[in-house]
């Protein structure tokens, strides 16, 4: 595996019963890439992520990962009744029992929540909890950050802020980021590489080389998306925000 490569997947197949969930998947990801994985519901995106993080291991093929992984799962729900504060929430991401007070405080500050260390997580907004989850995933100082639909349930402003943070971390720490997203606009604006998945890999390459026709095949409502200045935006009806 070359030095500048973070992930290699070769001839990956995954079946449940007799049904292919993932078929003949081949790709590699360079260190420092910000990869956006797009595809319709049921395409196998979360399954691929679970294979990368080692949660699913009964696949065939080769999966090679260089470096430590930090992971933000899909559908994380925080029970707002749980009486923990922001500091404790971030600390939970650390497997080491050593005191890393400084790192926790630094991360809370970097995700824009300094001064809120003692605030109960249950009293924070969805966007704040999501940024706190990002801090928690970064506490183990990963080389590769994997996120599954991190924008779900967060408003447009919160989303934009979150993507900016990801881009900042990616550039500053030379972090490799692999992110599943349904927000094609954000993916085309922020990601360096796009992967279109629907059981097989339909396309994979630098963002600027992905052709609209390839996406059209995957998304029946693709006509609602317009391409401008190298990024996609959902077309809005008048009066719609
Ligand atoms: N435990 C399971 N048992 C049976 N089928 C499963 C299981 N987990 C996933 N599947 C099937 O595998 C396929 C891929 O699911 P997966 O969750 O990876 O899709 P996805 O691309 O993440 O979808 P979404 O965009 O809705 O999150 C689906 O057809 C799903 O029904
Ligand atoms: Mg999924």
From TrEMBL:
Membrane-spanning intervals of the chain: none
InterPro entries the UniProt entry points to: AAA+_ATPase, ABC_transporter-like_ATP-bd, ABC_transporter-like_CS, Metal_Ion_Import_ABC, P-loop_NTPase
EC number from the UniProt entry: 3.6.3.-
Coiled coil feature spans: none
Annotated PROSITE patterns: ABC_TRANSPORTER_1 (PS00211), ABC_TRANSPORTER_2 (PS50893)
Alphabetical list of CDD domains matching this protein: ABC_Metallic_Cations
Family of this protein: Belongs to the ABC transporter superfamily.
Pfam families, alphabetized: ABC_tran
One term of GO molecular function: ATP binding
This protein's record includes keyword Glycosyltransferase: no
PANTHER family: METAL TRANSPORT SYSTEM ATP-BINDING PROTEIN TM_0124-RELATED
Superkingdom: Bacteria
Name under which the protein is recorded: Zinc transport system ATP-binding protein
Signal peptide: none
Keyword list, A-Z: ATP-binding, Hydrolase, Nucleotide-binding, Transport
UniProt-listed SUPFAM superfamilies: P-loop containing nucleoside triphosphate hydrolases (SSF52540)
Enzyme class: hydrolase
Domain ABC transporter: 7-224
